[in-house]
Amino acid sequence: xxxxxxxxxxxxxxxxxxxxxxxxxxxxxxxxxxxxxxxxxxxxxxxxxxxxxxxxxxxxxxxxxxxxxxxxxxxxxxxxxxxxxxxxxxxxxxxxxxxxxxxxxxxxxxxxxxxxxxxxxxxxxxxxxxxxxxxxxxxxxxxxxxxxxxxxxxxxxxxxxxxxxxxxxxxxxxxxxxxxxxxxxxxxxxxxxxxxxxxx
Length: 200
What we know:
This protein has helices spanning 4-13, 18-21, 64-67, 115-122, 125-134, 145-149, 158-199; strands at residues 15-17, 22-26, 38-41, 59-60, 76-79, 87-89, 97-99, 103-108, 152-154. It is of the alpha+beta class. The strands form three sheets. A four-stranded antiparallel beta sheet has the order 2-8-5-6. A hairpin with a 7-residue loop joins β5 and β6. It is globular and about 70 Å long. Residues 1-13 have low confidence and may be disordered.
């Protein structure tokens, strides 16, 4: 019979510090341009939900300095400065991009953790509260790399991680559909009100 203690031990064994399952580096500090060959991602390029905007306004030109900072498929960005500590997974479909210095670039070990799982975990409310507490105490909150590396996270099997990611994707899809329905209802009521007003 499984005891509570044995179950707790199983869970504990699944915990890993972020430094054990990923490499972390800082984004690049550079003065952006209005045009260029590589998108230079900043906080303003992301919505309040942590989604990348379709319209990027800052760019860099390729060079020796930018080559080692160019994002690779599966890199996870975590906003380390400011009041929003959202995480986002880079996909190559976005096009060539470099993260600004306000981000940590986290490169997960694919044998241990899926990038989208790590992003999902970092965006959870409890983790967001913890991250915000780390950066508290200064006018511009900032998380230290050593603090991020020391955070312990649950690392289930890859199939379990995949199921968690799929569930989150379904949730996001449901939210998008709900927003579209609300917007349609607003349009309908506005149209109806305008018709009634003009009949008066």
